[in-house]
Write a structure and sequence with these properties.
Structural class of chain A: alpha/beta
Strand order of the largest sheet of chain A: 2-1-3-4-5
CATH architecture of chain A: 3-Layer(aba) Sandwich
Number of strands of chain A: 5
Strand content of chain A: 5-15%
Number of helices of chain A: 14
Helix content of chain A: 40-55%
Distance between the termini of chain A: 37 Å
Radius of gyration of chain A: 20 Å
CATH class of chain A: Alpha Beta
Order of helices and strands of chain A: HHEHHEHEHHHHHEHEHHH
Largest sheet of chain A: 5 strands, parallel
CATH topology of chain A: Rossmann fold
Oligomer: homodimer
Amino acid sequence: PDEAARAKAVARERLLTKPAGALGRLETITEWLAAWQGRHPPDIRRPRTVVFAGNHGVAARGVSAYPASVTQQMMANFAAGGAAVNQLCTTMDADLRVYELDLEHPTADFTQGPAMGEEACARAMAYGMMAVEQGIDLLALGEMGIGNTTAAAALAHALFGGTAADWVGPGTGVAGPALATKTAAVEAAVAANRAAMTDPFETLRCLGGYELAAIAGAILAARLGRVPVLLDGYAATAAAAVLFAADARALDHCLVGHCSAEPGHRRLLARLGQEPLLDLGMRLGEGSGATLAIAIVKAAAACHAGMATFAEARVDGPA
Amino acid sequence: PDEAARAKAVARERLLTKPAGALGRLETITEWLAAWQGRHPPDIRRPRTVVFAGNHGVAARGVSAYPASVTQQMMANFAAGGAAVNQLCTTMDADLRVYELDLEHPTADFTQGPAMGEEACARAMAYGMMAVEQGIDLLALGEMGIGNTTAAAALAHALFGGTAADWVGPGTGVAGPALATKTAAVEAAVAANRAAMTDPFETLRCLGGYELAAIAGAILAARLGRVPVLLDGYAATAAAAVLFAADARALDHCLVGHCSAEPGHRRLLARLGQEPLLDLGMRLGEGSGATLAIAIVKAAAACHAGMATFAEARVDGPA
């Protein structure tokens, strides 16, 4: 991070026409933005939402309320502008890019062994890195993939322990016997891959998916490219958690846009030490929560850059 | 409320390309918006932030960290575009109107008797009602007035009981002996006016201020004019609480944009049964939290109106 830019933000914040600290989290967001964009004042002219899509072999086990065909069908919906994230990007004046990762070839069923081979996982990560193009100044990361809250739960369970049930939730809306099936799949996945998961990246390969590996790659590339990141819900955060498990500072350039109603997300955020910007009961994925949070980050930057100082406005300071 | 418009929103929400309920609170916001705008689909083309400003006799007792001169000085800052709310309105593409209520003549010191006479209080309410002009489709209500968290605490204490200390907080940043002075002023205000406070509107007259009376008036007029309202922080919500105390349904057309770091606000929201849209540690007033929340309401309306249905997008439903 650029500590000089951060220090400039802290110094200017003190001069602006408001009681000290009165903009609350908007002030710390501005400091974070300055540090990770590496400039002062920070600004957001070209925010982008990136959605990675992948298919999961485990979906065949009935872990989702929706058929795996929906992943591909939603690509057409994104392209036609009909999904929630399209409307949210329009509202936030953000670009949207959707990247498909070989949807015709799902990952292997990870209850039987690794989801991905080494080369395939590395390729997905590299693909995600390439999505961080020049000129983006805030990146919201999301995903689409039927079955991927099962992968997220398996990753969280393997990385942070507890029981499978601690990390499994309804996802798109499973309940009753289907929820038990999902929990059993997570247990089986962690058991089947235990020996192979010798480090966090091997865990990603065994229990993740192409879109989750791409998100991990994008987070890494964003840090190198000085692009602050907003993470979306449970699946995106589980992908990010792989990096956190490897290095507890790896997500310092990331904030979490929204706390999902998927119960594992709140638990996961606590492990990562992340306080989400929004908490509105959403549980959709596709970058929706991260995109909505762009408004908060934009507002923070706008206040910091545009407000008058006490001296400029000739407003009296504390009595 | 227009229950037919609300029912149309509920019906359409079920058809959109997302798992049922996956947009969480955005879905209930859309239903609320349809019901109180009285149309389906609801939309937000002309949001407006209105800030009322007033001065308080009690400010002379040293209850604020800032001198009372700041209220007037901030009017120039608003006009020049230098305050936080100016930047927030620009970010949200919302109009901003600031109305001064006779700043040269503060209310009477309410530790000695009523803050306002009957005619002055009624005039301030009427002034607030007139600010709700034709064509506004979402109204964010805020205030500016050195000393007004003291008035807010006094109103909350009188309306909802407890102790003065339950409702008093740092406001612009008082602590130690000044905080004790503020708490004592609230206790004295409630004691001095006890006999006169025979109903909630008399309580407003005794313990409120011109800008708070104007907010109460604006909330009433907005309901009649089918304009949904976003309330700001502690002072604005305390003004709204007067209406709630008179009729527990009086704020059904209002949502609270943000939970202030001022501790009395969370307590007050619990009494009103209001769940704030945002919780970002802000404590600035001037409509800042309500204006920031415009982004959430806009996003909700945009998703509802713009998303494709499962049938339109040819996306499979639950398996």
